[in-house]
Known about the structure:
Blueprint: E1 7-9, E2 24-26, H1 27-33, E3 42-43, E4 49-50, H2 56-71, H3 87-100, E5 116-120, H4 127-136, E6 139-144, H5 147-159, H6 161-164, E7 167-171, E8 189-194, H7 202-218, H8 234-237, H9 242-254, E9 261-268, H10 274-284, E10 288-296, E11 299-307
Parallel strand pairs: 5-6, 5-8, 6-7, 8-9
Antiparallel strand pairs: 1-2, 3-4, 9-11, 10-11
Helix pairs in contact: 1-2, 3-4, 9-10
Amino acid sequence: xxxxxxxxxxxxxxxxxxxxxxxxxxxxxxxxxxxxxxxxxxxxxxxxxxxxxxxxxxxxxxxxxxxxxxxxxxxxxxxxxxxxxxxxxxxxxxxxxxxxxxxxxxxxxxxxxxxxxxxxxxxxxxxxxxxxxxxxxxxxxxxxxxxxxxxxxxxxxxxxxxxxxxxxxxxxxxxxxxxxxxxxxxxxxxxxxxxxxxxxxxxxxxxxxxxxxxxxxxxxxxxxxxxxxxxxxxxxxxxxxxxxxxxxxxxxxxxxxxxxxxxxxxxxxxxxxxxxxxxxxxxxxxxxxxxxxxxxxxxxxxxxxxxxx
Length: 309
């Protein structure tokens, strides 16, 4: 029998104010939304109820419960070996880009299907379209270069009636392109978003993953593992020229679609990449370039945004 209050620490107060994943997870409520989670509950040395964040199956069940409880997504499953995203941090990205669409003189976030968003590299988990569509009613076009990821994401969408009319999948057939072949002449998007691969090689990605797991095993406590991902296919974790190369291509391609997109955005994991990207965007003619710092626990992410008009 587990003792103590059935809570596990969630995010720090640095989360966006509209992010619902504040404070502590109510694991009892999550288990009511997704009963399978209950078998993964355990007691920590303080006799508090938690899960083992070094167990990828436990993290997967927590994600399923969060999606069921907060976003009413009943059917969500990803293949073994694919990225299992930390949902509170992913939600933060959505809420911060929502602010970009909120006029200063009318501080209400635009909701509904008139707001269309392009998600580059949605992965098998399709997490950004899920959170964005269910939080604000936005319509999403979600893309990936991995055919398996696109098929799995399509199954998730078709298995959940709440997503069917709000999320469309498109396969990027050119691995060297970002927007080309995806944005059609008739398309207009308020926002684009991306969480780019940040390693430059498979060896680098494996080394980073091993360090992450080793650090977690050394910290077997009740801490929340929001800064930890499990799994990940090649395209999710690395590309030949790393994060800076990917975002350089994105910036250059964005010029060609500047009349079809109101605001381009991307996460930037490595702080040293921000300055050269801002310099490049300025040279390309971007009129407004901003960097938003987002803190999720011990992890700090940077959200780069740019517009051409």
